[in-house]
């Protein structure tokens, strides 16, 4: 076999066994480190069990997502992990059909096999932290209205604000740097400048830090900023970004483990879910110094 440089042909093997030891992984934004960390988690766990991963990027586009699901099924993948989708649960389940599926970043009640964090609770942690830092005029740069995680974070923001007896203001972004930058520029230039910004992800929060720097507004003295995800970059921007951590690598690894269970354990009854807890990571963008300091 060595002399002839023999390479086993996965497709030929798959024809016999009806298994390809390959899974599909569909993420919404390959440029967002939250999803690339998660993809690493899926891939490392898959390789450890002898599987390969076909990575697809939907670019937040539901049509492209459907197109990739069809393509993956055509390649005979053994199972599919779908991350952070904005499509309806029923649409994803219908197009995936009988192929084993794990959904990540969507609430458990919608999907059978799923991995997620409590987005509402994460947003409450963010707002309560800003309140504890003395902020009284906190605005929310939300994710897209049709994103379930964005909706839950917005709900958490509104709950925490109303418990504190404060009225809030929500601006819809799209989970990318530029929307955080443009929305924050507009808000910070306005007549009612907020003293706190809670952005629904780190990319938009980093955009907001850039907007403040460009306008000569000091963070956190004039406005405190909190993001969401804890991407690796959050610790390296200036000032370093306070954020709500979702353990993206571990969530990815756990998604593969759930898929593996479906693929290999015929005795599995019912469904499995893995819920992770959001965690506040305090850095310099939110901790206001007292006047005596
Ligand atoms: O950064 C992208 C965001 O969209 C993440 O917070 C993730 O939870 C997703 O829904």
TrEMBL record:
CDD domains in the cross-refs: PBP1_LacI_sugar_binding-like
PROSITE patterns registered for this protein in UniProt: HTH_LACI_2
Pfam families: Peripla_BP_3
GO molecular function: DNA-binding transcription factor activity; transcription cis-regulatory region binding
Domain HTH lacI-type: 1-17
Top-level lineage group: Bacteria
Key words, A-Z: DNA-binding, Transcription, Transcription regulation
Annotated InterPro entries: HTH_LacI, LacI/GalR-like_sensor, Peripla_BP_I
Keyword Transcription set for record: yes
Annotated protein name in UniProt: Transcriptional regulator, LacI family
Species annotation: Alicyclobacillus vulcanalis
């Amino acid at each position: 076999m060595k002399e002839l440089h023999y390479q086993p042909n996965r497709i030929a093997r798959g024809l016999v066994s009806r298994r390809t030891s390959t899974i599909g992984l569909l993420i919404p934004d390959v440029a967002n480190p939250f999803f690339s960390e998660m993809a690493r988690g899926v891939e490392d766990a898959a390789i450890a069990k002898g599987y390969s991963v076909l990575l697809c990027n939907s670019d937040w586009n539901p049509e492209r997502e459907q197109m990739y699901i069809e393509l993956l099924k055509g390649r005979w993948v053994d199972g599919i992990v779908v991350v952070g989708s904005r499509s309806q649960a029923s649409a994803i389940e219908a197009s995936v059909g009988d192929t084993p599926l794990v959904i990540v970043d969507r609430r458990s009640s919608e999907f059978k096999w799923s991995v997620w964090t409590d987005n509402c609770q994460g947003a409450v942690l963010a707002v309560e932290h800003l309140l504890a830092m003395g902020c009284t005029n906190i605005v929310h740069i939300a994710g897209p209205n049709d994103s379930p995680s964005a909706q839950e974070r917005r709900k958490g923001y509104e709950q925490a604000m109303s418990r504190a007896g404060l009225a809030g203001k929500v601006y819809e972004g799209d989970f990318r740097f530029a929307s955080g930058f443009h929305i924050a520029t507009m808000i910070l230039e306005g007549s009612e400048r907020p003293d706190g910004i809670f952005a629904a992800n780190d990319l938009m929060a980093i955009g907001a830090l850039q907007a403040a720097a460009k306008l000569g507004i000091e963070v956190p003295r004039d406005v405190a900023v909190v993001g969401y995800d804890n991407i690796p970059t959050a610790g390296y921007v200036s000032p370093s970004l306070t954020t709500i951590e979702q353990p993206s690598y571990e969530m990815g690894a756990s998604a593969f483990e759930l898929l593996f269970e479906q693929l290999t354990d015929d005795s599995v009854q019912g469904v499995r879910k893995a819920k992770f807890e959001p965690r506040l990571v305090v850095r310099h963008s939110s901790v206001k110094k007292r006047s005596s300091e």
